Amino acid sequence: MCFTSKDVIEILFSFIVTCSTVVYAILTWKLVKETKKQRRAITEPIIDVGLQRNEEDEHIFELYVVNLGFGIATNIKFKILKDFEIGLGLNKKLSEIGFFKNGIRALSPNKKYKTVISELLGNSPDKFNTTIGIEVIYDTPTESNKKLVYNLNFSEYADVVFTKKNATMTMKLLIQSIEELSKNIKDTQK
Fold first, then answer.
1. DSSP-assigned letter for residue 86
2. Alpha carbons 72 and 146: distance in angstroms, whole number
3. Domain check: are 28 and 106 in the same one?
4. pTM above 0.85?
5. CA distances from 14 to 11, 21, 82 (A)
6. Phi, psi (5° rounding) for residue 80?
7. Facing residues of 48 across strands?
8. What's the domain range around 23?
9. What mean pLDDT is predicted for residues 21-27?
10. Cα 135 from chain centre
11. Residue 144 sits in the same domain as residue 82
12. How many CB atoms are closer than 10 A to CB 78?
């Protein structure tokens, strides 16, 4: 069998078209796979549990549960792995507090539950060495019984100095008030 140059060109062109089609099919498959991942990420809840200082009083600590994702988390249950005695004269353990004990039916995006759990006046060294262990189990739109474990430790707050949000403004107002008072005293002494 004898191939003409026209036949060779047609075979070569067909081979190039076939290779291009295969590459295009692979890229399309990867794009579909990536789109599925993005769609899933958009609908997935992300439950976070952590400690934070109270905005009004820096010696008060709160424990929060928040949904940072874009989907709704349902049937949220908590298993306290390492319990914690709540301060503030409540004489309760963390496992006895409402939403930790009973769970949360649904947590929509950016919804936050929080509870005061301790005060750290005088920077108690024992409290700063305390760890709280919490396992969170919840359902997502695509997965049942998703589990996350959090080990929360007060030590990250040891030796950290916090100021209230409006401390600068409060200080300016205090200085202005003292200046006005000083001026009024001078005026009354004349």
1. E
2. 13
3. no
4. no
5. 5, 10, 67
6. -80, 110
7. 66
8. 1-32
9. 93
10. 15
11. yes
12. 22
